[in-house]
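Posting for a labmate who doesn't have an account.
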Amino acid sequence: MKDELLTGLIDQVKKLTQAVESLSGPGYAENDLNAADCFVWVPESRFLQPVAKPNRIDISLIRGVDRVRDILFDNTRRFAEGLPANNVLLWGARGMGKSSLVKSTHAALQAQSPKSGPGLKLVEIHREDIESLPVLMAMLRDMEDRFILFCDDLSFDNDDTSYKSLKAALEGGLEGRAENVVFYATSNRRHLLPRDMMENERSTAINPSEAVEEKVSLSDRFGLWLGFHKCSQDEYLDMIEAYAKHFELPMDPDQMRSEALEWATTRGARSGRVAWQFIQDAAGRLGKQLK
């Protein structure tokens, strides 16, 4: 009788333990940094999810942004070599290659780096997970590799206070910023905050200048601001020709230029993204794979 009672109590304890563990969520995952060069941050399990085939293009195909390309490449090269480097905010016109440039720069430097020694890893953190950035930075601080943390299309809305977590993470707090981590972000907004948000602060705050300064100071945490602006017609056509040559598309140059201009007109814009969309359409019509 006592044995049956004891067995019953043990079963109940096991069930209670399982119930408590299920409420606490999944445990922390084990990370294998040798699995890939690119990762996506999963904050719930503190997991760096490997990306086997990153979506990126050769850096030579990014046209019309030569100056900012060289600045970003040089900053990233210094960081990869263990030298001081800045956090970078790439801001400006849509479709001009901001995120593509970050990924392509990482790939170009990976191709140049020796196989032995610390690696250069690219870790994407989604906009909605930005509050977990301090946790990610703390986790990476003592690792041997060097890490570019990348957030694409970063911005904050009126009621969003997570920008304060980003400010604290970029400064590093009492310990300072980890030497093996830099943060790169792309945004359509130079100050990451909507204009009406700052105007509202001016009209409602007791001290308007201080309220606006507190929000604008977020972008000051980035040592480099790289601006991307709308491209000219010549730059747009140069992108088209570079893509066509790289992928060996059998098109008559004059016909290609005429069709590319018509394509941009129907979309009301000229940009690297529009150029790439035209090339995809042209390759499809020609039955040509883009590899």
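Reply:
Got it, the structure tokens are right above this. The longest helix spans residues 2-23.
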